[in-house]
Specification:
- This protein has helices at about 1-15, 25-35, 40-50, 55-65, 90-95, 100-110, 115-130, 135-145, 155-165, 185, 195-210, 215-220, 225-235, 280, 285-290, 325-345; strands spanning about 35, 70-75, 80-85, 135, 170-175, 175-180, 240, 250, 265, 290, 295, 300, 305-310, 315-320.
- With about 350 residues, it is an alpha+beta fold.
- It has a four-stranded antiparallel beta sheet. Strands 1-3-2 form a three-stranded antiparallel beta sheet, sandwiched between helices. A three-stranded antiparallel beta sheet has the order 4-6-5.
- A hairpin with a 5-residue loop joins strand 7 (about 240) and strand 8 (about 250).
- Helix 6 (about 100-110) packs antiparallel against helix 9, helix 7 packs across helix 9 (about 155-165) and helix 11 (about 195-210) packs across helix 13.
- The longest helix has 18 residues, at about 115-130.
- The radius of gyration is 20 Å and the shape is globular.
């Protein structure tokens, strides 16, 4: 049993690009994982760093701003995600319909009426069409002038509504800020989406970056009903390998790599968000890493969480759960230097 769990963890780490070969571009990382949690831009940047080799933060910013190969928007569970631009149309069409109800409820809680929300979305669309990409603060100014409430979390949920409707996405970096762009200007008119084809692609791509996994893992990660997850698995049944532990994986999966060397992972790292259970990675340390809806940065040693870390005064500070072996501590110190190198241009 222990050996089987070890193998399963190695397979997932390999699928996640944390073990074995690492990516050579931000697009390669995002394409493999399909969607990377992106509400914290530094966290998304660090997720790319941990799964790639030889990149800096400017490579991701270039992909967002000039190459337009990746973007950030609300998909899946109603959270901002970093996705490939070519995946945006079908992923948006498939995963956003369940999010409108919650968005309307939150707008009402923030004191934004339906009429005001409609006026707000039109204001956002007009501003982006007339002025090009605008930052969140610039859009708040346009909404304030239109007398649409932006206090509290109202602004966030208005921007989310515009994004759910396929009007806006977070595209380029403008100065130090991530700006919103009009979808039709930034990406062009989207092609029609066949839902069944999209569901099969979602399942295939989820397993590519998260396998082995189960139907409930997929449903939770994508924010879709269990029946959709099961339909997706049926659609690609000939491509799957059913395992003795009840999980499935792509039949064409390459052999799992060895456990990765010690590495620092950022906030909201995808390794903690892809499956229903985080126990294989964090064990009994969940309260040290997760609290109040936040996922702290942590250190991975032998495939498992061994410490949390923070960045303060240009220095990485490690808080181990137990004494680290000298070689692991030395490896994390080297990786800390790479974190600073990677982020230095941010």
């Amino acid at each position: 049993m222990r050996r089987a769990k070890e193998r399963s963890l190695r397979e997932r780490l390999t699928a996640q690009l944390l073990a074995g070969s690492r990516a050579r571009s931000p697009l390669e990382v995002v394409t493999r994982l399909l969607a990377v949690q992106g509400q914290d831009l530094r966290g998304a940047r660090l997720a790319v760093r941990a799964r790639s080799r030889g990149l800096s933060v400017t490579d991701l910013d270039r992909a967002l701003t000039h190459e337009r190969t990746v973007l950030i928007t609300w998909v899946n569970r109603g959270t901002l995600h970093l996705v490939a631009s070519e995946d945006y149309p079908w992923l948006h069409a498939l995963t956003t319909p369940p999010l409108f109800t919650g968005n309307a409820r939150r707008l009402a809680q923030e004191g934004v009426t339906r009429a005001a929300a409609e006026r707000g979305v039109k204001t956002i669309e007009r501003a982006l069409a007339d002025e090009g990409p605008l930052t969140r603060l610039q859009l708040r100014d346009r909404l304030d002038k239109a007398r649409v409430r932006t206090k509290g979390q109202a602004l966030v949920h208005l921007l989310m509504l515009a994004s759910l409707r396929g009007i806006a996405v977070r595209g380029p970096i403008v100065g130090k800020q991530h700006a919103y762009a009009l979808v039709r200007d930034w990406l062009g008119a989207p092609a029609p989406v066949d839902r069944d084809i999209a569901l099969a692609e979602l399942t295939r791509r989820y397993l590519a970056g998260h396998g082995p996994a189960g139907d409930r893992d997929l449903a939770q990660w994508a924010g879709l009903p269990l029946r959709d997850a099961r339909a997706g698995l049926r659609a690609i049944a000939t491509e799957l390998h059913e395992r003795e532990d009840g999980l499935v994986d792509l039949a064409a999966r390459a052999r799992a790599a060895r456990m990765p060397p010690p590495r620092l992972l950022g906030v909201f790292d995808p390794l903690l968000l892809g499956w229903r259970s985080r126990e294989p990675v964090i064990g009994a340390n969940e309260r040290s890493i997760i609290g109040g809806g936040l996922f702290r940065p942590f250190a991975l040693v032998d495939g498992r969480a061994a410490a949390t870390w923070s960045l303060s005064g240009g220095e990485v500070k490690l808080e181990p759960f137990a004494r680290l072996a000298p070689d692991a501590a030395a490896a994390l110190a080297r990786d800390a230097k790479d974190v600073l190198r990677y982020l230095e241009e941010a």
